[in-house]
Design goal:
Blueprint: H1 7-25, H2 30-58, E1 61-64, E2 85-88, H3 90-113, H4 120-139, H5 143-161, H6 168-199, H7 204-210, H8 215-232, H9 241-247, H10 250-275, H11 283-304, H12 309-334, H13 342-377, H14 388-391, H15 393-406, H16 413-428, H17 430-455, H18 471-489, H19 491-507, H20 509-517
Antiparallel strand pairs: 1-2
């Protein structure tokens, strides 16, 4: 059997098996449950790496569920796909690797972090379902199945955000997320239904090959962009994000970072692969640029005044999403610009895509470091912390690395991706680069405050018994720290071998359509 051909299905089958196996195996004890959580999370990561290697070597992978051949997208002379199709190009594979790294790190961290609590069989099951939903969104080639996986991720997120149901704040955050998710999902479904009614197709490649500019198509685009911007936490649709990230267990917050990027992936796929050259005009690109600028500025200004550490990091998530939206919007605006600015557009796409990887790694690491502080001290408020560097040196070191990366300090990976964005957006208008630079300065200021307050300064008298967190939690943080350092030490290799192929795949609408349709349209 050619296992490489079945890697897309295996990427979804492994976490799905984990979700159903957890309630069965959890009664056998802590060791069995943790082995399931860590083991299958590692297998999922390994499958994503093998899938990326296969795609980079052999081109877009097309997997047809129930087909006689995994590459038979148009059976029996059909002009349109009729089966569920997974389409994995370099962009999809790149996003899947980012997501599975975060999922594996969160799983390692959660083994010790959640050990004090009950109902952990349900926790593991929901964790795998959330991973399944995230990965399904990233590799599906069907707009309706994207909706299905979006719903799976939303339902799992609702349960995990409210996992500490004895905290009213957690229940409130989960309820808020549920309302936002259901509204956005219904709007997404309306848009998908409108496109299906017009083109009699749900496959994204098929719709991309048939779509023509029109009033219905523009309205569907607005619905899709608004929904996915809401799900990835863009301003002014961000109201759910700080609460959800702050109240979820830290291992879950780590995974939620990657899940939000799956929605951003969907936004980018809609703009480039579904609509592409039929996007029409500069309105949507400027809307995305405006959302990016507003997200950066308002996210960082709200973060600066926060005292609860995870909530502060949550507002920084809004700010960081703004950088990616800015790169995406500028890329859409100038890739086909008649003034010869296409080079800057592709640079913006590369910068935004590299920032997706960087953001997922260092933001997930920051949430795990915040969780380690809470695990060791039982405190969330910065005003109640101090002197932890003496007691928790490994956590402190990894927090400093993540804080330097998110602040864009050279030579860290965050600086490289931001520099690509600065360069490209400055070519469009200097004011865009100024907003991005000011955001980085305020980001640095807020994390200097966190480091000074929580890790330096006088040690609290109640912290004499505080010790470094268990090895499993350190390993979870270590996975993300290694990822940050690899991207920091080898930025050229990372861009050339991972980011640039993904960016080229994203902007190649014809290649995406051709992988499924061939000469069918």
């Amino acid at each position: 059997m050619n296992w490489n051909a079945h890697l897309p299905a295996l990427l979804l089958a492994v976490p799905l098996f984990g979700a159903f196996a957890s309630p069965v195996l959890s009664p056998f004890g802590r060791t069995t449950r943790n082995a399931l959580l860590a083991g299958l999370s590692f297998v999922t990561l390994l499958v994503s790496l093998l899938l990326m290697k296969s795609v980079l070597a052999g081109g877009t992978a097309v997997y047809v569920m129930g087909g006689e051949s995994t590459g038979l997208a148009l059976p029996l002379g059909m002009k349109l796909p009729i089966r569920i199709i997974m389409e994995v190009d370099a962009f999809s594979a790149f996003m899947a690797v980012c997501g599975t790294v975060a999922s594996f790190a969160g799983a390692l961290f959660s083994m010790n972090y959640m050990d004090k609590f009950t109902a952990l069989g349900r926790f593991v099951s929901l964790y795998f379902l959330l991973t399944l939903g995230m990965l399904g969104m990233m590799i599906t080639g069907d707009i309706f199945n994207f909706f299905v996986f979006l719903e799976i991720a939303s339902i799992a997120s609702i349960g995990l955000i409210a996992f500490w149901r004895d905290r009213p704040e957690a229940v409130e955050a989960s309820f808020k997320y549920m309302l936002i998710s259901q509204v956005s999902s219904m709007v997404f479904l309306i848009a998908a239904g409108a496109l299906y009614g017009k083109y009699n197709a749900l496959n994204m490649a098929a719709i991309g090959g048939l779509i023509k500019p029109g009033t219905m198509e523009k309205l569907a685009l607005v619905f899709l962009v608004g929904t996915l911007a809401m799900k990835c936490g863009a301003f002014p649709l961000h109201m759910w994000l700080p609460d959800a990230y702050a109240e979820a267990p830290s291992g879950v917050s780590c995974l939620l970072v990657a899940v939000s990027q799956a929605s951003l992936y969907g936004l980018m796929r809609v703009c480039f692969s579904l609509y592409g050259v039929n996007l029409g005009g500069a309105f949507i690109p400027w809307v995305i640029i405006s959302m990016g600028l507003a997200s950066m500025f308002f996210g960082v200004t709200m973060a600066v005044v926060q005292h609860e550490i995870k909530r502060l990091i949550g507002y920084h998530s809004v700010s960081q999403v703004g950088y990616m939206l800015l790169g995406l919007g500028v890329g859409m605006l100038v890739l086909t610009d008649a003034r010869g600015m296409a080079e800057y557009g592709f640079t913006a796409i590369k910068g935004g895509m590299f920032h997706i990887f960087n953001y997922t790694m260092y933001k997930a690491l920051l949430f795990l470091a915040a969780g380690a502080v809470y695990y060791a001290t039982g405190k969330r408020d910065l005003n109640e912390l101090g002197g932890l560097a003496r007691r928790m040196p490994f956590t402190t070191g990894m927090f400093v690395i993540a804080a330097a990366a998110i602040s864009g300090l050279p030579p860290f990976n965050g600086f490289v991706s931001k520099l690509l964005i600065y360069e490209s957006v400055f070519a469009v208008h200097p004011a865009l680069a100024v907003v991005a630079l000011v955001t980085s300065v305020l980001t640095l200021a807020s994390f200097v405050k966190v480091f000074q307050t929580a890790f330096l300064g006088p040690e609290k008298s109640s912290f004499t018994a505080v010790r470094e967190v268990p090895a499993g939690m350190l390993f979870g943080m270590g996975v993300l720290t290694v990822a940050v350092l690899v991207a920091t030490l080898f930025p050229s290799w990372t861009i050339s071998n991972l980011v640039e192929p993904a960016a080229k795949a994203l902007v190649d609408q014809a290649g995406y359509i051709g992988a499924v349709m061939g000469g069918g349209l």
